[in-house]
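INFO worker-7 received task bundle
INFO bundle size: 2
INFO processing item 0
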Amino acid sequence: MKKKILLLALFVFMFGMFSFIGQGEVQAGVGEWEELDPAPFGSVHRSSAVVINNKIYVVGGFYGTNTLKVFDYINETWSELRACPSTAVNSKSVALNDKIYTLGGSNLTEDIEREFRTYDPATDEWSILPSAPSDTGSMVAINGKIYVAGKQNYLMYDPNTNQWSILSNRSQWGMAPSAVALNNKMYMNNYSTTVHAHRFYVYDPATDTTEELASASIATYPSYISSSRLVTYNGKIYALARFSLLEYNPMTDQWSTMSNTSICDGDYSAAVVVNGKMYVFGNGGGGIYQSMVQRYIFEESDDPTDPEDPTDPTPTTGNKALIITLDNGFDKTYLVTNSQLEAFIDWFESANDNDFYTINNPLGGKGAKDYLVHDKIVCWRAADI
């Protein structure tokens, strides 16, 4: 009898353990948030982040941090790299030509917002570049150049000449804490705690002009977009505001609320989108949240590096949406036929680093084409439409 009781107790214990393990492995679904393990090696709050070759690089952090960390989002592991030459709290970073360009920051005693440096992952080395000619703000990479929404002027840096240019005056638009590139234009918010906290703008480098867009007035305090991080996904812009995720559609010039959440305070966080998921580093609450890492699921997608199926998905019938993630963290979406998708796959598998692929861009107007450089593509996926 005792033996039966012991066996029954063991069975109940093992069943409970398996149930607990199974619950622990439940992952967030589409439209949901999940919290990952905290980032090691210091704070990631008030940092900046970029994507290069299936890795997320996080530059700086709060309390004067100058660390450079790399997050392997596929295996969810961290490594620490060579530190930035100067403190990088509140710095801005972009990826261009497989390098990280980092602008500005603060060392808690003085601003260093004009300092400009670049990091090469291939050599684990930093280089100091010419300082910006005036006070700076957020920046983006467009057509091989870097554009900065400065406090007084727009600025442009050309990596081919290693020189800055001062563009049009933008003092009337206010400071832009965050900006993203979409369709060769720069979209940005405006820092304010007043009525201007919802204002939103777009800058066109081709004409050197700025236009005010629809206000994100659907966001009420404390969900201002003024200090939120901006990201792009599938042709739309997302503002990671305080405890809410807002979506902006540039085709309709309208805002909508995607998610209200108590888990993510996006105030001054760093964020990138890769492979259908948004990764957020740091949290506006500060304190114990300095190393917080969170993930939002836009779309369930297969691992692009899966050795069993490196070109997933296999074309079937009907038109496809081809979504390509570039090394600057941005997604480009194209409508393609089965044969066009097969042609892209054949090119992608056989191309060299500097080879480019020509593809129609329906958002660019009649006859518009994009030229995709092979070594700028981080990953791609296709979906039926």
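INFO item 0 finished
INFO processing item 1
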Amino acid sequence: MPPRAHLGPPHCFGVLASWPVGTGAGWNTLREFLRLGCHRVGAAGFLRLSGAWPAVLTSESGMESKKTILVIEDEPHIVLGLKDALEFEGFRVLAEATGREGVNAARAERPHVVLLDLMLPDINGYQVCEELRRFDAFMPIIMLTARSQEADKIRGLDAGADDYVTKPFSVGELIARIRALFRRINRPTESLEFRVGQATVNVSAHTLLRDGEAAESLSFYEVELLRLLHERAGQPVSREEILNKIWGLDANPTNRTIDNYVVKLRRKLERTPEKPEHILTVYGFGYKLVP
């Protein structure tokens, strides 16, 4: 029996309750349904469809036509789901099932984005992330994890991941994050450096240098968050605007993405992270940078 992609509730365009996928015509036929409904990839590796296909998954004039995405994931069903959805959007997709194979593929192919599962059969995602960072400090890495604990997410960011998505996750949300990442990467850099307190942030080098101390590396999203707040220095910036401009997402009361990055940045930037002087919380709204 081939794996099955579970198509959402019965009202979903009247399609069958489930559809066999895995090879050839199965995926080609399923692709037509994927154009009509939004799907999620769960921890068990199933695609679940419901509702209308979000605008975020419609093609964007060749934006991803030459972009390569490396998926390091050992669950075949999740790999098939991701590969089909991402290729449908115009990406070139590579896949490896172990951490070491993934590191080797990243060295050889230099993908534009790495989607990295946390739980792998040989070495875990944290170790893979550290290996990738040893030879490429700027390669965007999005960690896929079934762990929802904040400590696990922070550990992933500390290991060098730029972002994380918790299983089960929306492929629409994932592609929105990837597109937002590419938009930020391709944006012209108005200023290569700026000061925050006693620290200098170098946008192009992804470093933060505090006076009299060694430089600390910054992830892509750390740089972008600091840069956005610096552009609006002294003004509160809403969580909605931050999520939309940097991650390409709509605000969600349960989305702790920004908070986790703020925790990391305060550790690097503030003299006393528990009593911040520069990255301030505007309760019920967002954050404000005081240079």
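INFO item 1 finished
INFO post-check item 1: The two ends are 60 Å apart (CA to CA).
INFO post-check item 1: The mean pLDDT is 77.
INFO worker-7 idle
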